[in-house]
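Good morning N.,

You mentioned wanting to compare the apo and holo forms, so I went ahead and generated the holo version with inosinic acid. This is what I fed in:
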Amino acid sequence: MGSQSSNEFTARWAQHDLGEVVVSAKEVHDRVLELGRQITSDYSESPPLLVGVLKGAINFMSDLMRAIELPVEVDFMAVSSYGAATKTSGVVRIVKDLDVDLLDREVLIVEDVVDSGLTLNYLRQYLGARNPRSLEVCALLLKEGEQRVEQSLKYVGFTIPSDFVVGYGLDVNERYRNLDAIYTFTGKA
Ligand code: IMP
Ligand code: MG
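and this is what came out, ligand included:
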């Protein structure tokens, strides 16, 4: 967990909406490198297809793919489970599907945050039906005690409290994805 040192809290332009630093930019950076090393070693025989979940996973995907020293392929899906609110609706809608075939591929879903787990649960079933050789998940954040669906996550960056957070890809009404650190959101959604 990061502390709110003046060094850390450089996002003055967003400060009125932000609470404490939940994960600092340095902590994110270091952990992403570790995850990259782990994935490199686990998939050395068969490089995975990384499937990023738009838009929240953009920052994470961008850094993670460069931390993996294998010829990975990258594709994206867009799903919508939230609308504009900060609580899940439980309804998942595919907004953009994959461009590639999953048959016999090692597929690694790259997610920003697992909250209720409903989005991931839906994605797993949806992608699993296309007969990949393997289907695993790399989630940057896992919210403690929030999962309504049991999840087995192969890689987790950080387990965090259940507060709503923004930054490093995570948004509130499409804002604050461009923060380098992850903060609690204290403004009005
Ligand atoms: P779930 O279906 O409840 O697990 O929610 C997953 C999706 O909701 C994530 O991929 C995010 O897009 C969004 N989400 C959940 N918690 C947060 C948060 O704290 N900040 C921003 N987005 C969130
Ligand atoms: Mg979102």
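The pocket of magnesium ion (ligand 2) is lined by residues 56, 82, 171 (CB under 6 Å).

Happy to go through it together on a call whenever suits you.

Best,
F.
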